[in-house]
């Protein structure tokens, strides 16, 4: 999931989902009353019709659609090597991707054909990543990279980390190969931009997991499917940001080049591309982070690497191992993020440093390259430089510490955590879930459509109606409603947190400075490392997934709301203060109403983030759609159901996105 | 609407030589909107005002039936308020914006007939343009920005850097070659823009409100710089501005535009002395007339009894410069051209202008 782009793409002038203050106009009062009326009617009918026509489906039950998906899967499996479409298209793609991945893996992570160890051992890899970080970034990130990668080795996870890196690098390489030209095209051509934008929007709304199922259909389970899923998921940020960068080159500059007689090619190569370089690198950063998130989650379809370690540990509730591997993912995420961020800042820095180091830079780079080559050669030739020395003792220390902390927490804090869990579950989650799952499907559907029409207008209503219809057709309606309940509850809590911290950050620059780096760091983490600590606290329940979702989604909501509050003009606040408002009045009567665009945007993003996490929570017993998807990968007869559940997740995502966006547009109009 | 005041001979400007114009524009139209082509062809649509045209056709006519000639070495100023079509006009001249109809003859060649390659070649060698917002490349140093046009042409690195260096010195930026544009002030950035335009040694320089974004003091410096460069390199210049004092200061001739149409085209003293309509009159109202008008504009025919033995002055002497001589003389000054008496100027006439008494022409 990406954030930075969406903030720039979506206009600030949006409105709230919540019914606005009654003082504004008669029409809006009536809108909030209609919402209340819909809810009341729903409650009354729920009490009357409870338990009827709920479309529940037991875990092992299948519908015709699921069986049909299974048949399709089987027939594709049977004809994979005879059907021309597969023979000459999908299989070829798989072959190319497979050879690329195998090549990179043999280079850094897996034993190659005639060698017991990879071509380049740990010393060489550490040398190369350090050198590259220094060359594209600066010496500080190079140090961070060397320390980070050495730490991965000390954790006893060298090979797993290298597998993850190999997959990420391969996927990012192929993704950029397509994404940058497409982005340039979208930047130059309005028509192409109009065509791709809705697709990019949709792709970025989808949780990582839903990409996996359909791809396994075409590319089988394994690293190549994982890489393809990753590159599809990771390409949109670069396409979008490249297009944006090309579009934001000042018109005068392009015109000046034209007036000097530049050809289209010349103005692309000498003006547009150099001037968008910095922004494009930011897109590459987002692509790399998205790829890392996807590679780890692709462990569900048998992608090798750290993700697999985490998934296996989560499934056996082995907190220590999950924590160790999760920590490795975090380390890798931080390193990749810092290096690419430094790369995008480097050009600027070099320009401001008065050219002092320019003369030295070239010889230094050459010397660094020579040292790196020596390290790589050593690691290719000597075993001590090839296999990471030691038994990964740091890793076992981390594991046992995490285990003992988890045990201690379960022994000593279970009173507190269980009470917290039970209060939230019984007072909020259960009633709400009952309302959604125990009402007749048509009642829930009608209520959803009604709310969509009132909040977002007719078009949002029609989209919702289509989504509800298709949700029923997927056959996993009941699981969908369970997921919906968890998502909505978590989003409400996210918004509460977001408003409290967002307003605090928006009003105090100091608090903002203190909190924001943590939020930024939190956003680069792949989603499911969040599950690990909460698994220790709350055990394997849907509650773990909900808390993880709240923690995962809160940073983005806080940042958007903080920016919204900060953007309220200082003069307006000053005017309110001079009129004698106290702090509470300023917040509730000036800052929050004026930041309602940010509030809606935060709701939109919060919903999407929460949904993706709640779904991943299927790994730790959250059940519902996420579990259906996970089960579909591991059990052949549930494959079709998993695919249907993936579709249902897409439908929920589209529904949330359309309603909140329409509501935003509508209240701002 | 258009008045082309023909007053023979003035301030010794280069177009006196009667040579063929560098740029000759005839019936130039630029219409934005759906099916824009039909507007210039239809007599009925041509007659509409801008608003009526918008309502009738959904089109906006940015440039309407403009025609003028620019002589070699002349500084030709196009002046108008924002939305008058002046920036569109200058872009049409180099086809950065494609004109809808009309004829643009540059050194005998109709530019509208040029194909893409020929047009590029013209832009590379014959014209260049200076932009309001500079349009510099932030990732290149000053010298590489200046050399950009030469690079586009395919000139070798050593040669183009040498040439760029000369031009950088010409515009007074020596010592800043290796700076990046964002390290320079606005005025200096525009000098880079000017240098870039000069580097290719073009025949014509186009300026699109080049100094509008600058502070008043810097703007004055830059105007003087343009005057100096004009003296040194003697290029033909087409200069767009919305500032009348800038137009009067720089322009040999000035074209005033309003709503895409030409209102008046003439020298500064013609605009002040004989405004074509109320719009121009309103424009030039606050101009210090003594600085612009020449004796030609204020002389009167000698009446009976006027003593005709006073000192002599030429008809193109500016009033301000003649004031002291006229007031010092006991008798009216004779305005004489080629030994022929054109009229006389006495204290009355001078004081009327200097004290702002003279009723508008």
UniProtKB/TrEMBL annotation, chain A:
Residues 161-340, 480-660 form the ABC transmembrane type-1 domain. The keyword Chaperone does not apply. Its main location: membrane. Residues 1-15 have a biased composition (Basic and acidic residues). The chain crosses the membrane at residues 32-49, 141-158, 165-188, 208-234, 279-301, 321-343, 364-385, 441-472, 484-507, 527-552, 606-626, 638-656. It is a multi-pass membrane protein. It comes from the Bacteria. One of its GO terms (cellular component) is ATP-binding cassette (ABC) transporter complex. Keywords: Cell membrane, Membrane, Transmembrane, Transmembrane helix, Transport. It is found in: Cell membrane; Membrane. GO terms for molecular function: amine transmembrane transporter activity; carnitine transmembrane transporter activity. One of its GO terms (biological process) is choline transport. Residues 1-23 are annotated as: Disordered. CDD domains: TM_PBP2. Belongs to the binding-protein-dependent transport system permease family. This is ABC transporter permease subunit. It comes from Streptomyces muensis.
UniProtKB/TrEMBL annotation, chain B:
GO terms for cellular component: membrane. InterPro entries: AAA+_ATPase (IPR003593), ABC_osmolyte_uptake_ATP-bind (IPR051921), ABC_transporter-like_ATP-bd (IPR003439), ABC_transporter-like_CS (IPR017871), Gly-betaine_transp_ATP-bd (IPR005892), P-loop_NTPase (IPR027417). GO terms for molecular function: ATP binding; ATP hydrolysis activity. Residues 1-20 are annotated as: Disordered. It comes from the Bacteria. Residues 48-284 form the ABC transporter domain. Pfam families: ABC_tran. One of its GO terms (biological process) is glycine betaine transport. Keywords: ATP-binding, CBS domain, Nucleotide-binding, Transport. SUPFAM superfamilies: P-loop containing nucleoside triphosphate hydrolases. Belongs to the ABC transporter superfamily. NCBIfam families: proV (TIGR01186). This is Glycine betaine/L-proline ABC transporter ATP-binding protein.
């Amino acid at each position: 999931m990406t954030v930075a782009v969406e903030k720039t793409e979506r206009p600030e002038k949006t409105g709230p989902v919540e019914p606005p203050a009654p003082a504004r106009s008669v029409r809006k009062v009536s809108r909030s009353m209609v919402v209340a009326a819909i809810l009341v009617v729903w409650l009354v009918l729920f009490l009357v019709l409870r338990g009827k026509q709920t479309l529940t489906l037991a875990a092992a039950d299948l519908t015709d659609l699921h069986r049909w998906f299974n048949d399709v899967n089987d027939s594709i499996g049977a004809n994979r090597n005879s059907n021309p479409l597969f023979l000459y298209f999908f299989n070829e793609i798989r072959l190319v991707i497979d050879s690329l991945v195998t090549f990179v893996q043999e280079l850094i992570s897996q034993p190659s054909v005639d060698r017991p160890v990879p071509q380049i051992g740990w010393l060489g890899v550490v040398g190369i990543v350090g050198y590259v970080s220094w060359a594209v970034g600066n010496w500080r990130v190079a140090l961070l990279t060397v320390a980070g990668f050495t730490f991965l080795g000390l954790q006893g996870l060298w090979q797993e980390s290298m597998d993850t890196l190999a997959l990420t690098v391969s996927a990012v390489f192929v993704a950029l190969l397509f994404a940058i030209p497409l982005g340039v095209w979208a930047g130059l051509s309005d028509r192409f931009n109009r065509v791709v934008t809705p697709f990019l929007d949709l792709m970025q709304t989808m949780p990582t997991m839903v990409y996996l199922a359909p791809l396994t259909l075409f590319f089988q389970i394994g690293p190549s499917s994982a890489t393809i899923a990753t590159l599809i998921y990771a390409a949109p940020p670069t396409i979008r940001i490249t297009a944006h960068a090309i579009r934001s080159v000042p018109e005068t500059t392009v015109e000046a080049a034209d007036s000097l007689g530049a050809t289209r090619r010349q103005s692309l190569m000498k003006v547009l591309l150099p001037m968008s370089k910095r922004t494009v690198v930011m897109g590459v950063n987002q692509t790399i982070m998205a790829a890392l998130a996807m590679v780890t989650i692709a462990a569900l379809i048998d992608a090798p690497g750290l993700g697999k370690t985490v998934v296996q540990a989560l499934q056996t509730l082995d907190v220590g191992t999950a924590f160790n591997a999760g920590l490795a993912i975090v380390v890798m995420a931080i390193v990749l993020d810092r290096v690419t961020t430094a790369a995008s800042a480097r050009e600027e820095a070099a320009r401001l440093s008065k050219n002092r180091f320019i003369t030295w830079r070239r010889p230094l780079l050459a010397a660094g390259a020579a040292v790196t080559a020596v390290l790589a050669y050593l690691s290719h030739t000597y075993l001590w430089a090839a296999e990471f020395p030691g038994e990964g003792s740091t890793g076992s220390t981390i594991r046992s510490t995490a285990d003992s902390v988890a045990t201690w927490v379960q022994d000593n804090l279970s009173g507190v955590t269980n009470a917290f869990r039970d209060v939230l579950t019984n007072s909020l989650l259960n009633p709400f879930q009952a309302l959604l799952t125990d009402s007749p499907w048509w009642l829930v559907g009608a209520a959803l459509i009604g709310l969509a029409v009132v909040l977002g207008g007719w078009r949002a209503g029609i989209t919702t109606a289509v989504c509800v219809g298709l949700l029923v057709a997927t056959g996993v309606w009941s699981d969908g409603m369970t997921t919906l309940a968890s998502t909505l509850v978590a989003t409400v809590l996210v918004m509460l947190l977001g408003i409290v911290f967002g307003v605090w950050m928006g009003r105090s620059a100091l608090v903002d400075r203190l909190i924001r780096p943590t939020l930024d760091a939190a956003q680069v983490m792949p989603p499911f490392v969040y599950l690990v600590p909460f698994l220790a606290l709350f055990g394997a329940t849907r509650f773990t997934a909900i808390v993880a979702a709240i923690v995962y989604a809160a940073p983005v909501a806080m940042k958007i709301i903080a920016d919204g509050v900060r953007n309220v003009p200082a003069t307006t606040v000053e005017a309110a203060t001079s009129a004698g408002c106290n702090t509470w009045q300023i917040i509730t009567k000036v800052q929050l109403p004026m930041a309602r665009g940010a509030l809606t945007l935060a709701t939109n993003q919060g919903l999407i983030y929460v949904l993706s996490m709640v779904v991943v929570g299927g790994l730790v017993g959250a059940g519902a759609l996420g579990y259906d998807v996970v089960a579909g990968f591991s059990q052949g007869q549930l494959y079709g159901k998993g695919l249907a559940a993936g579709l249902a997740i897409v439908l929920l995502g589209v529904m949330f996105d359309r309603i909140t966006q329409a509501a935003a547009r509508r209240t701002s109009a | 609407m258009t008045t082309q005041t023909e007053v023979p001979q003035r301030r010794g400007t280069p177009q006196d030589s009667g040579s063929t114009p560098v740029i000759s524009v005839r019936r130039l139209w630029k219409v934005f909107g759906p099916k824009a082509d039909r507007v210039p062809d239809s007599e009925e649509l041509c007659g509409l005002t801008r608003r009526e045209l918008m309502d009738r056709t959904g089109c906006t006519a940015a440039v309407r039936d403009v025609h003028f000639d620019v002589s070699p070495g002349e500084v030709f100023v196009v002046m108008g308020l924002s939305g008058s079509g002046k920036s569109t006009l200058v872009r049409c001249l180099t086809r950065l914006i494609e004109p809808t109809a009309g004829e643009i003859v540059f050194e005998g060649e109709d530019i509208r007939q040029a194909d893409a390659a020929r047009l590029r070649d013209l832009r590379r060698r014959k014209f260049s343009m200076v932009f309001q917002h500079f349009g510099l490349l932030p990732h290149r140093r000053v010298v590489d920005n200046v050399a950009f046009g030469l690079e586009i042409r395919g000139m070798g690195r050593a040669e183009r850097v040498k040439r760029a260096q000369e031009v950088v010195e010409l515009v007074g930026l020596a010592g800043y070659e290796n700076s990046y544009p964002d390290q320079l002030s606005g005025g200096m950035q525009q000098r880079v823009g000017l240098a870039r335009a000069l580097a290719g040694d073009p025949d014509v320089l186009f300026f699109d409100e080049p100094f509008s974004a600058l502070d008043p003091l810097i703007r004055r410096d830059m105007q003087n710089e343009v005057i100096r460069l004009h003296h040194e390199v003697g290029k033909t210049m087409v200069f767009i501005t919305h500032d009348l004092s800038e137009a009067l200061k720089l322009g040999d001739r000035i074209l005033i535009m309003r709503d895409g149409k030409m209102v008046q085209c003439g020298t500064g003293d013609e605009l002040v002395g004989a405004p074509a309509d109320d719009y121009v009159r309103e424009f030039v109202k606050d101009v210090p007339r003594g600085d612009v008008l020449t004796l030609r504009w204020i002389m009167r025919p000698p009446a009976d009894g006027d003593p005709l033995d006073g000192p002599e002055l030429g008809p193109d002497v500016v009033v301000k410069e003649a004031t002291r001589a006229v007031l010092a003389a006991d008798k009216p000054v004779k305005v004489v051209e080629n030994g022929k008496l054109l009229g006389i100027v006495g204290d009355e006439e001078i004081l009327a202008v200097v004290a702002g008494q003279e009723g508008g022409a």
